[in-house]
Design goal:
- The protein has 2 domains: about 210 residues, Rossmann fold (3-Layer(aba) Sandwich); about 180 residues, Glycogen Phosphorylase B (Rossmann fold).
- The chain has 16 helices and 14 strands.
- By secondary structure, it is of the alpha/beta class.
Length: about 400
């Protein structure tokens, strides 16, 4: 079987999506499939990709094809990048044959266009992998406001789900969302994102990364990941909580990563006069275990309007590190329910800085509770979200589509 794995983001870009898609491609290739990754040029291109509009390279038994897209960070620029990537995917249809499978990691929903032609003209099968509920997320965040644009986006979503042979969603809540939109239950498979629990494991707080950034002797409340539209407002509440805790010199808030909203958060921290907050760039992946081990509490922030529309893969990554999670999410969200039911951390509403500050105080004063929550988190993720278990389920699903 040949699998065309479509993803906007891929290594060497930073973030969870590039890592997860590389692990999936490697696993499927090792399982005997012919795998072709269809992706974009890295955002930080360096000398290797500078000036290229197309690249084809073979790595570890599978092919990686890259198409140029723009890199503008604002919403309309992102929409343009999605459309350019879709055009590249259309050009790639010449190599699709009957019985091949197109794996579409969405967003963007525009990938439904090449998927339609691959089915109609080439006889391919289509698996849609839903990572965020679009266009709901864009509508709730206020990015998509035009009534005609909303109608078109919803129609596109319905059309993409209709043409898919199978749809893989990352949570039960996502599955409910699709069923409520009329997607047949038999078409939907719940396959959560995974984590490499052999690589990401609990480690000592005093380590080379914590020493490098002066975190080894502080109580560290950390967010690590893309600073995006789904978490920006909640991270603003985190900064306000930092202001409330400014009198405790032992507590420091650390925000690690890049993204559309990072500069706005920097300005917010400056306007609050914060001296107990640090911003760090993305760290090399090899340093991630030590980075997370530097933290005493790990943050999973979700803006109020998006709590039901996203389950960040960083949640499972943080749980693997064996640290307590502080989730900023609505009480009925999947993040909050998991943290409470599995006793992996605390959950507070994402719109209250005082509640965030009180939760941090509670955890700072309770080292034994932190150890218990972290141990529960590690045990749960090893049992439910370990890499080989989830990737094996993807392999089984893909084989069933062509059997």
């Amino acid at each position: 079987m040949k699998i065309f794995l479509h993803t906007m983001y891929y290594l060497p870009d930073f973030g969870s999506a590039p890592i997860l898609m590389d692990e999936l491609a490697g696993y499927l290739a090792a399982a005997g499939h012919e795998v072709e990754v269809v992706t974009t040029m890295p955002r930080a291109r360096g000398a290797e990709f500078r000036g290229l509009i197309y690249s084809r390279r073979k790595d570890r038994g599978f092919v990686v094809k890259r198409f140029w897209t723009n890199r503008a960070p604002f919403p309309l620029g992102r929409l343009l990048a999605w459309n350019i990537f879709t055009a590249g995917a259309l050009l790639n249809l010449l190599s699709v044959r009957k019985g091949d499978v197109l794996f579409l990691r969405t967003p963007p929903l525009q990938l439904g266009v090449p998927a339609f032609w691959a089915k109609a003209v080439r006889g391919a099968r289509v698996l849609v992998n839903v990572q965020d509920i679009h266009p709901d997320l864009a509508i709730e965040s206020g990015i998509l406001k035009n009534p005609a644009g909303i109608r078109f986006a919803k129609a596109l979503e319905k059309w993409v789900y209709g043409l898919a042979d199978r749809i893989a969603v990352i949570s039960d809540g996502f599955a409910r969302n699709l069923r409520e939109k009329g997607v047949p239950a038999g078409k939907v498979e719940v396959l959560p994102n995974w984590v490499d629990t052999d690589f990401l494991k609990p480690g000592p707080k005093d380590n080379p990364v914590s020493r490098r950034h002066g975190l080894h002797d502080k109580f560290v409340v950390m967010y690590s990941g893309t600073i995006s539209i789904s978490s920006n407002m909640a991270l603003e509440r985190v900064l306000e909580a930092a202001k409330l805790l400014a009198g405790n010199p032992d507590i420091i808030f650390v925000i690690v990563g890049e993204g559309l909203k990072k500069e706005a958060l920097r300005k917010k921290a400056a306007s609050l006069g914060l001296r107990n907050t640090a911003f760090l760039p993305f760290q090399p992946y090899r340093d991630l275990p030590d980075l997370l081990a530097s933290a005493d509490v790990l943050l999973v922030p979700l803006d109020k309007e998006k709590s039901q529309l996203s389950v960040p893969s960083k949640l499972y990554t943080f749980m693997a590190a064996g640290r307590p999670i502080l989730g900023l999410a609505e009480p009925d969200s999947e993040v909050a329910i998991l943290l409470c039911e599995k006793e992996c951390g605390l959950a507070v509403p994402p719109d209250g800085a005082a509640a965030v500050a009180e939760a941090v105080r509670t955890l700072e004063r309770s080292p034994e509770r932190r150890r218990l929550l972290g141990r529960n988190a590690r045990e749960h993720v090893v049992g439910q979200f370990a890499k080989d278990k989830i990737l094996g389920s993807y392999d089984k699903l893909l084989r069933s589509m062509v059997s």
